[in-house]
């Protein structure tokens, strides 16, 4: 089916039809089979060893990676020309989601297949791919990505590692320390960033056995204890000149473009982890008895299960909608052109705002999920014998990985506003229309024949609210708005909730006609529960933004708009929560 191709950020000013979104229900038989293969791999090869892996047995991780390679799970994003499968992003995200129950192993897997492999795929020469790619995609070698340094985390370009050309011109001599390197302890190939002559930020392919590369001690971490995290020390490390990756001085393109995919993949992984954690909580709630009955019969527990189910539905809907956007865009490219991967990267970069949204929203859904899973377990959730304790510890890093959620929040409106300034999005014209609506009373009546009419009205109103606030912010601060971090964070919260609401709503609307009446009612319940919570978050963010930007009569006018445009009729909310909880408790699974 041909889908309309939206630009990145365009969702804020355009009405999308449900037929234009990809959903998990659109998976082909082949995709489902790959998902099942991944599930079986985790159940048979990893799950029995999770405690040993968490105890630091990295030999089991390396063995697991080799077995994943045998099943083709490491080659999904690699080109066919070099033995890869070159499958679409929806399949790649599905595997990322299904690998999540593997605990710490999933971190090694994600780092290897994402930031460990993609720099070589996207920017490597034919000779470099010929030399290294087969080793990586078969699991013979594990890969790592070395960007962060002790003094530069979010400020990646502030790296101090240096590279100097040797006198004979055959090697670059690298010096510096890389920090928090996932897979650092057992990787055989590292993508390392350093500044040539202390100026030109450049990427290098560095083998473990190169002279001058030293692997530091394992970090003692709060969670993901079964993943290797070390320093990589470059002590006059000799790297052949032919191992420069991409162009000299263009390392930032590799660093940032690969992180877009990394953020997206993290969103898929944490969604899979949230599903697993929820199921564990439901099972426990059904088994645990207090006052003579299972705690799953209590309304306080049921509300938690309902809220988490709705959150995860939105998270899953968002991830696969974004996969569809990327796949639709990338499918328009001609693979035969010489600069295919350059155009490919532009296609991914187009949706950089949505990739950041996926990272923030989905990681925070997992955070809420594991917190409530521990709460449902009560005291036992604090005991290491129960998996809830590990879920809680392992989750925390996801809001730091791939750029902290704060950095990503600031990127979201920043990237959208830059698109507007370049003329790629007519944001200013739409903002002016939105301002006019503040002075125009609305007499629209809901279409009673549409079960999602209230949610569609909320969505349209929140988009208007975003435009009002972004327009006010630009008018007051102009180009200096990028320095107003508190305002950017508030705008991001609004943009994130809009994308999540729309993704959940469009999925439910699309699949409702083809499902059973029970499933249809559950979809409506999930959308209602999620929209109620999201409207509260969006309304609070908009109010915060209004106080940050305006004062006097203009503030009063905008606050009136916030109340009007964040209003949502959630009639039947309690019944919706009880229906969701009852079904999840009865089925003992994530419902969608």
Description:
Helix 1 runs parallel beside helix 4, helix 13 crosses helix 16 and helix 15 runs parallel beside helix 17. It is built from 19 helices and ten strands. The mean pLDDT is 96. It is an alpha+beta fold. Strands 1, 2, 3, 4, 5, 6, 7 and 8 form an eight-stranded mixed β-sheet that branches. The protein has a two-stranded antiparallel sheet with strand order 9-10. Helices cover 56% and strands 10% of the residues. It folds into four domains: 132 residues, Butyryl-Coa Dehydrogenase, subunit A, domain 1 (Orthogonal Bundle), CATH 1.10.540.10; 101 residues, Beta Barrel (Butyryl-CoA Dehydrogenase, subunit A, domain 2), CATH 2.40.110.10; 155 residues, Butyryl-CoA Dehydrogenase, subunit A, domain 3 (Up-down Bundle), CATH 1.20.140; 168 residues, Butyryl-CoA Dehydrogenase, subunit A, domain 3 (Up-down Bundle), CATH 1.20.140. Keywords: FAD, Flavoprotein, Oxidoreductase. Its cofactor is FAD. GO terms for molecular function: acyl-CoA dehydrogenase activity; flavin adenine dinucleotide binding.
Helix content: 55-70%
Task: Please tell me the overall pLDDT.
Answer: 96
What name does the CATH topology of the largest domain carry?
Butyryl-CoA Dehydrogenase, subunit A, domain 3
Distance between the termini: 23 Å
Rg over CA atoms:
24 Å
Q: Can you tell me the CATH architecture of the largest domain? A: Up-down Bundle
* Shape, principal axes of CA atoms: globular
Protein name: Acyl-CoA dehydrogenase
Cofactor: FAD
Keywords: FAD, Flavoprotein, Oxidoreductase
InterPro entries: Acyl-CoA-dh-like_C, Acyl-CoA_DH_CS, Acyl-CoA_Oxase/DH_mid-dom, Acyl-CoA_Oxase/DH_mid-dom_sf, AcylCo_DH-like_C, AcylCo_DH/oxidase_C, AcylCoA_DH/ox_N, AcylCoA_DH/ox_N_sf
């Amino acid at each position: 089916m041909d889908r309309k191709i939206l630009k990145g950020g365009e969702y804020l000013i355009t009405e999308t039809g449900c037929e234009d979104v990809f959903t998990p229900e659109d998976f082909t038989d082949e995709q489902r089979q790959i998902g099942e293969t991944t599930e079986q791999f985790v159940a048979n090869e990893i799950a029995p060893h999770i405690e040993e892996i968490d105890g630091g047995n990295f030999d089991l991780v390396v063995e697991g990676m080799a077995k994943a390679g045998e099943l083709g799970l490491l080659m999904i994003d690699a080109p066919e020309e070099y033995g890869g499968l070159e499958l679409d992003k929806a399949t790649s995200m599905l595997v990322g989601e299904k690998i999540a129950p593997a605990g710490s192993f999933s971190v090694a897997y994600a780092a290897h297949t994402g930031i460990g492999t993609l720099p070589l795929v996207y920017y490597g020469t034919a000779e470099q791919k010929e030399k290294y790619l087969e080793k990586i995609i078969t699991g013979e070698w594990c890969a790592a990505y070395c960007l962060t340094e002790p003094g530069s985390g979010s400020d990646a370009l502030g790296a101090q590692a240096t590279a100097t050309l040797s006198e004979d011109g055959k090697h670059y001599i690298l010096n510096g320390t890389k920090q928090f390197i996932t897979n650092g302890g057992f990787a055989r190939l590292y993508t390392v960033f350093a500044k040539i002559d202390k100026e030109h930020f450049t990427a290098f392919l560095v083998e473990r056995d190169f002279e001058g590369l030293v692997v530091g001690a394992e970090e003692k971490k709060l969670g993901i204890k079964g993943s290797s995290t070390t320093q990589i020390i470059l002590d006059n490390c000799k790297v052949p000149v032919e191992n420069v990756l991409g162009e000299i001085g263009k390392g930032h393109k590799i660093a940032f473009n690969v992180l877009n995919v990394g953020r997206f993949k993290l969103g898929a992984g944490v969604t899979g982890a949230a599903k697993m954690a929820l199921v564990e909580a439901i099972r426990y709630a059904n088994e645990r008895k207090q006052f003579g009955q299972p705690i799953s019969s209590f309304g306080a527990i049921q509300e938690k299960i309902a809220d988490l189910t709705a959150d995860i539905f939105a998270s899953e809907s968002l991830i696969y909608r974004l996969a569809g956007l990327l796949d639709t865009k990338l499918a328009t490219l001609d693979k035969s052109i010489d600069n295919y991967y350059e155009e490919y990267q532009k296609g991914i970069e187009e949706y950089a705002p949505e990739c950041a949204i996926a990272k923030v929203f989905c990681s925070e859904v997992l955070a809420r999920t594991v917190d409530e899973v521990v709460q449902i377990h009560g005291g036992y959730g604090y005991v290491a014998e129960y998996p809830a304790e590990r879920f809680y510890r392992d989750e925390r890093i996801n809001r730091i990985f791939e750029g902290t959620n704060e950095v990503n929040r600031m990127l979201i409106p920043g990237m959208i506003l830059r698109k507007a300034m370049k003329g790629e999005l007519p944001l200013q014209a739409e903002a002016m229309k939105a301002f006019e609506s503040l002075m125009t009373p609305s007499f629209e009546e809901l279409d009673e024949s549409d079960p999602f009419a209230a949610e569609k009205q909320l969505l349209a109103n929140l988009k208007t609210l975003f435009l009002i606030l972004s327009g006010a912010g630009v008018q007051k601060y102009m180009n200096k708005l990028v320095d107003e971090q508190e305002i950017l964070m508030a705008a991001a919260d609004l943009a994130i909730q809009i994308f999540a609401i729309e993704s959940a709503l469009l999925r439910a609307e699309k699949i409702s006609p083809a499902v059973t009446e029970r499933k249809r009612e559950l979809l409506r319940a999930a959308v209602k529960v999620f929209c109620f919570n999201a409207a509260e978050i969006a309304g609070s963010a908009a109010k915060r933004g209004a106080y940050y930007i305006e004062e006097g009569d203009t503030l009063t006018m905008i606050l009136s708009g916030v109340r009007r445009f964040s209003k949502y009729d959630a009639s039947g909310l309690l019944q919706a929560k009880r229906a969701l909880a009852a079904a999840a408790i009865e089925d003992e699974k994530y419902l969608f």
